[in-house]
Amino acid sequence: MTPDLMEAGAQARARLQAQVLARGEPVFNQGVALYVEDLRVAFDGFQALGGLSLTLGLGELRCVIGPNGAGKTTLMDCITGKTRPDSGRLFFGSNLDLRRMSETEIARAGIGRKFQKPTVFEALTVQQNLELALAGDRRVRQALRARLSAAQRDRLDELLQEVHLWSEADRVAGLLSHGQKQWLEIGMLLAQDPRLLLLDEPVAGMTDEETARTAELFRCLAGRHTLLVVEHDMAFVGELAGADGQVTVLHEGRVLAEGRMDEVQANEQVIEVYLGR
Ligand SMILES: Nc1ncnc2c1ncn2[C@@H]1O[C@H](COP(=O)(O)OP(=O)(O)OP(=O)(O)O)[C@@H](O)[C@H]1O
Q1: Best label site of 38, 131, 186, 270, fewest CB within 10 Å?
Q2: Which stretches make up the ABC transporter domain (predicted)?
Q3: pTM for the whole thing?
């Protein structure tokens, strides 16, 4: 290749990179979805996060566990921009500094969050809830009247199957079981095609069968999405982590241990502060 062509290639790459940055999209060229370094948050002098560091690989399914007050929710709040860290580094991909972005910008960049309590539109059907999510941030009535494109229709069908609600498509969401409502909300999050999904105690209140199906769903989503799951149900965490997945244990705002499920379960400190309780 001639020097001219090499120069033109470098300029084209730089232009592309600048466009991506201007659009606020993450760049995952290092294989890292989320990079957290020495994150600190204090509330009125009380240190909720005291130097937390964590790296999530692209497409990874990571479980975060730890006793009450360990900082799990605060970590999620920092990632979504709800809480502003006092110091530390927090990057989505290699380029997006989440500390400089608003909650809306962070959501648009592809970080979706599922809270413990489902928040679906109870009076609408399962399908209408998903249609709304696919239509984006348009107003409810306008979104319901808008016709979905053929691609969106296909995606709707895919979502209904993915979250096990195909046979419930025309049912009013208020009549679903607790577990089904949780799946519907996960489907609504997936409709926005997030790159990173934060899931806070997703199986709390679910039956054993619903919990097993949720584990299966999350394992299917990993790879296409990066998942960070906060959960106290250790059987569920074990299902998600499998033999090789990494589990992170938080305690007093820091990472106490990180490793495979069997390593974490055998860790004396983890047993003392969390598992042995
Ligand atoms: N807005 C706030 N103001 C004051 N203190 C707070 C605030 N948010 C969290 N904290 C404190 O920070 C610590 C960490 O809380 P956090 O909710 O992140 O823990 P957690 O690991 O999610 O706990 P749990 O498992 O009970 O949900 C707790 O001691 C909590 O009381």
Answers
A1: 38
A2: 34-277
A3: 0.88
